[in-house]
């Protein structure tokens, strides 16, 4: 069966990217090579560590009861509360026996094909900088707090860790079909903004939710957003916003279910049938949806970010 990722590709070295694949044009800084890896992690000073500690403390006020059990367990297992920006070498040494992952520093957002290649080698690229006091509440470029606090704890979960690894390989396959946009929507609605059903209610496992105080409450509890059970075909046809709270979140039953729905399905067939652009608006509810909560969209209707609308 053709599955999410082609298995015959060798990922031990960065594969050649086909010339006809379009990815965002990013200018590579001179001090990094083709792998976009920094020669060393930044040495952070006391002010940087204080920013990390304040961000950490702010999240811990809202995450208990709202973050997925796997995430909270991961925070503990990696001892992320010990204070200061964590050293990637220590995180990698601790992750290795758990799931085989490591954390590597990159200067900025890196090109898709390089990002996928690192994931396919169980390396998680994380920003080599931290936000400032001026950009404490919101930065668009993912920094070390978003990347390490938001993403890395989930890599302690074996099934989720395998999903991320398969996703990397899937990226290379999607490029061959020119379906990066569709696969990007899947990443967005799972890895960044995913929710999971737990025995005592819906919790967040997406890093975009977990690394910000407003969205952690909004995604799980607010009346505005739709919450819909994840359906991979549907998600890959759905547009998304990158600069505001999400109008819709997708909910998984378990990480095993996420793995089954994605890794074990015939993506080649799906890619052949997908239109090149998105079919559904990010606030739409459609016939096939298994709806958990029909959102009022009040926040969006009142103007969203910058309008002063309350995230209710
Ligand atoms: Fe992220």
Question: Gist?
Answer:
The protein has 312 residues and is of the alpha/beta class. It is built from 13 helices and seven strands. Helix 10 (232-235) links the parallel strand 5 and strand 6 (248-252).
Task: Describe the model.
The protein is α/β, with parallel strands linked by helices and 312 residues long. The protein has 13 helices and seven strands. Strands 4-3-6-5-7 form a five-stranded mixed β-sheet. A two-stranded parallel sheet has the order 1-2. Bound molecules: fe (ii) ion.
Q: What is the makeup of the main sheet?
A: 5 strands, mixed
Element order, helices and strands? HHHEHEHHHEEHHEHEHHEH
Radius of gyration: 19 Å
Q: CA-to-CA gap between the ends? A: 45 Å
Strand-residue proportion: 5-15%
Count of helix runs:
13
CATH-defined topology: Phenylalanine Hydroxylase
């Amino acid at each position: 069966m053709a599955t999410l990722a082609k298995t015959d590709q060798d990922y031990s070295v960065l594969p050649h990217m086909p010339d006809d694949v379009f990815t965002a044009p990013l200018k590579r800084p001179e001090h990094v090579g083709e792998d976009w890896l920094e020669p060393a992690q930044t040495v952070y000073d006391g002010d940087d560590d204080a920013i990390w500690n304040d961000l950490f403390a702010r999240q811990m006020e809202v995450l208990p009861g709202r973050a997925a059990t796997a995430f909270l367990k991961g925070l503990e297992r990696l001892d992320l509360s010990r204070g200061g920006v964590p050293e990637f070498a220590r995180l990698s040494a601790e992750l290795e026996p758990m799931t085989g992952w490591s954390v590597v520093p990159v200067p900025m957002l890196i090109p898709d094909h390089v990002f996928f290649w690192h994931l396919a080698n169980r390396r998680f690229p994380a920003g080599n900088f931290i936000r400032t006091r001026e950009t404490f509440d919101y930065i668009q470029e993912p920094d070390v707090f978003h990347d390490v606090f938001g993403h890395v704890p989930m890599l302690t979960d074996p099934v989720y860790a395998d999903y991320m690894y398969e996703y990397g390989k899937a990226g290379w396959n999607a490029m061959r079909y020119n379906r990066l946009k569709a696969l990007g929507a899947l990443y967005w609605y799972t890895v960044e903004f995913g929710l999971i059903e737990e025995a005592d209610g819906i919790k967040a496992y997406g890093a975009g939710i977990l690394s910000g105080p407003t969205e952690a409450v909004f995604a799980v509890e607010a009346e505005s957003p739709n919450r819909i059970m994840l359906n991979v075909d549907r998600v890959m046809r759905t547009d998304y916003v990158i600069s505001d709270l999400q109008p819709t979140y997708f909910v998984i039953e378990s990480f095993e279910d996420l793995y089954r729905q994605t890794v074990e399905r015939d993506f080649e067939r799906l890619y052949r049938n997908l239109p090149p652009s998105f079919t559904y608006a990010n606030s739409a509810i459609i016939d096939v949806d298994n709806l958990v909560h029909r959102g009022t969209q009040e926040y969006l209707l009142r103007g969203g970010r910058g309008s002063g609308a309350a995230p209710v």
